[in-house]
Amino acid sequence: MTNENDIDGFNKSLGATVGKYTNYPTSEHIEDWQVLSPTKFIGAGSYYLNNQLHQKYRQDIVEQWSTYSWSKNSPQSVQNIVYGDKVISNVNGEKDYWDGSSGKAYIANGEIGIMTDYPSHYGKNDKNTSWYKFRFGSFEGKVFSYTKADFGGDNSDSKLELAYALTVHKSQGSSFGKTIVVINGKSSFVTKELLYTAFSRQREKLIVLSDLLIQELVQYANDWYSDTKQRYTDLFEVPNIIEIESSKQKRYFEEKLIHKTIRGEMVRSKSEVIVANILDKMKIEYFYEEPLNVSGKTYIPDFTLRYQGKIAYLEHLGMLRDRSYKERWGEKKANYESVGISETLGNLIITEDGLDGSLDATLIESKIQTWIKNR
Fold first, then answer.
1. pTM value?
2. Which of 41, 53, 247, 360 has the lowest tally of Cβ within 10 angstroms?
3. Dist. CA 98–CA 144, nearest whole Å
4. CA–CA distance from 94 to each of 90, 103, 271 (Å)?
């Protein structure tokens, strides 16, 4: 597009051939770009954004189709879906198609497509049974038929809706050439996991449009805004939920994850807070409790460290005075060593509390420095 009023450019971005008439021969370009929003109906949600884009770039077709009451084609659904509109399926089910011969294929909820043909203005057939034709990105070469009844009515919802903008939830599992993520103000719907999903849908380019300061967006990387950290799904124990208040906000965490690092992670002990803060001060990239597969068994190292292409695992031992804890650590250490993770090889860092519960932060920093120098 050359500017915001370039309707021809908008059509071409969806795969149209623009000349004396507009033609959509394929659905090949239907996922070249996508607008994403955390919500559907709240704020600048996907429903609002779809309506705005539709009024901007499709209103001329809506008006043309609405001019003659006797016309076989007319805008469909409450969203006035017309020729060239990008849509998404809201339902699962088989639909008729044509690709040189007739057939049926399963259109899943979430399939994205485009209207590529529509009933003629003229004809004697009942316009209620006229076919609107769609192509879908997963079924290149097949043209699917929808009737007016498929677009809903008094007793049913439309099987298709506009898809210029989607909720982040709807976009899961999909990828697009370019994504434009719209974040309108602070919202309880915006979480660390949601933004990770939104920011990883693009193949080529990510654009973020927000009225929040960059510092406010960066805060969502903290576990304080994590949805996962506030899920209490232990099948064997009744979780003990703790309420924590910060900056006039209340959040709820399992009792074992109530200690907050300088970066915002919720960890299990004050000792782990100190370790995490040391790593942050040393500007070492780290991940807390990132799963690690060892000989077919999954372990959870306290910290996974990445520095200039090297990886090490840091285990902080805080309860060595407890016999069962010490035995479990011995077993875990042996398994680590069996797959080449050890202090000797330089990819395992072991720090510990004193038997009296004391902690030497300078010793921890020294061990990390040694790993950096010997890497």
1. 0.62
2. 247
3. 7
4. 13, 10, 57
Longest dimension (CA), the chain: 92
What is the chain's pLDDT, residue by residue, as a tens digit (375 residues)?
899 999 999 999 999 998 767 888 888 999 999 999 999 988 899 999 999 999 999 999 999 888 876 667 889 999 999 999 999 999 988 999 999 999 999 998 899 999 999 886 544 444 445 789 999 998 989 999 999 999 988 778 999 999 999 999 888 878 899 999 999 887 767 877 788 888 889 999 999 999 888 777 777 666 555 555 544 444 444 455 445 454 444 544 444 545 678 877 777 778 888 999 999 999 999 998 888 887 777 888 999 999 988 899 999 998 888 888 889 899 899 999 999 999 999 999 999 988 777 888 899 999 999 999 886
Nearest to 308 by CA among 328, 282, 326: 282
Neighbour-count burial for 143-167, b at 16+ CB within 10 Å, e otherwise: bbbbebebbbeeeeebbbbbbbbbb
Question: Is the separation of the CB atoms in 266 and 278 below 8 Å?
Answer: no
CB 279 within 8 A of CB 303: yes
Sheet containing 348-352, strands listed edge to edge, beginning at the edge strand earlier in sequence: 285-288, 303-307, 310-317, 348-352
- DSSP secondary structure, 121-136, as one string: S--SS-GGGPPEEEEE
Neighbours of 130 (CB within 10 A): 19
Cβ atoms of 114 and 96 closer than 8 Å: no
Helix or strand (DSSP H, E) at 3? none
| C-alpha span between 158 and 318 (Å, rounded) | 58
3-class DSSP state of 26: coil
The token pair at 67 is: 């001019």
Q: Are 210 and 217 in contact (CB under 8 A)?
A: yes
Tell me how long the chain is: 375
State which amino acid sits at residue 97.
Answer: Y
3-state SS track over 38-91: CCCCCCCCHHHHHHHHHHHHCHHHHHHHHCCCCCCCCCECCCCECCCCEEEECC
